[in-house]
Structure formats: C-alpha cells, structure tokens
Write a structure and sequence with these properties.
By secondary structure, the protein is an alpha+beta fold. It has a domain of about 70 residues: predicted glycosyltransferase like domains (Thrombin, subunit H, Beta Barrel), CATH 2.40.10. Helices cover about 20% and strands about 35% of the residues. It contains 2 helices and 5 strands; from the N terminus they run βββββαα. The chain has a 5-stranded antiparallel sheet.
C-alpha cells in the first residue's frame, strides 16, 4: 500500500478481502479518506487497485475501500474469491471441531 503523502510503501497483512475492499493490519495506520495505491498478492497473482482508507484502528490496521481497479485485476480478485468460497464448503466447515463453553469457573475456585 502506498500513500502519496509518504515516500515509502506500507507493508501489512491482509486479514479480509472482498470485491469492495479489504482490511490490512499495519502498525502505522493512515487516516480515513487518504488515497492509496494497493498491491495485493492473491495466490501468487498481483492485483492492483486505487483505493481510499475507509476506517482506522490505530496501530492495528486500516479498512480499505477499492475505488478503481482494472478489468483484469477485478477478474483475478473475483476468481480468487470464488475459489476461496468453494474451499469453505459446508462439509469442510462441519469437519472442524466445535466447542461450547457451558460453565466458567475462575482459577481461584
């Protein structure tokens, strides 16, 4: 992610991504409405977008809203999201263990 106000790129970890934007964990966050150029690597595919900061969680991360994306980049993003949703089928989720807390006892008890 690169902001015109800084002369160096911000590197972070993409936590969530969708067709409209993403959330990126970064220590040095940017203020909302800041315009940025975003480079995402999705399964080895480079996706570029013009974006703006939509939200700011100080020293945690920024919500990013995609403003402009080329047709090929939008297609790569859409294909990535489609593949990711197919991997998260109900059968795959059912195999994961589910835990339920029915009672909490403090350690001093």
């Amino acid at each position: 992610m690169r902001s015109p106000s800084k002369n160096y790129p911000y590197r972070g970890r993409t936590v969530t991504v969708g067709e409209g934007g993403c959330y990126i964990e970064v220590l040095e966050t940017l203020e909302p409405s800041t315009t940025v150029d975003v480079v995402l690597w999705l399964n080895g595919e480079k996706v570029l977008a013009k974006a703006e900061v939509a939200s700011n969680d100080r020293h945690i991360g920024n919500g990013i809203r995609f403003v402009q994306m080329g047709r090929e980049d939008a297609k790569k993003l859409k294909n990535f999201l489609k593949a990711a949703s197919q991997e998260a089928t109900p059968a795959a989720r059912a195999e994961a263990p589910v835990f339920e807390v029915t009672r909490f006892t403090p350690a001093s008890a």
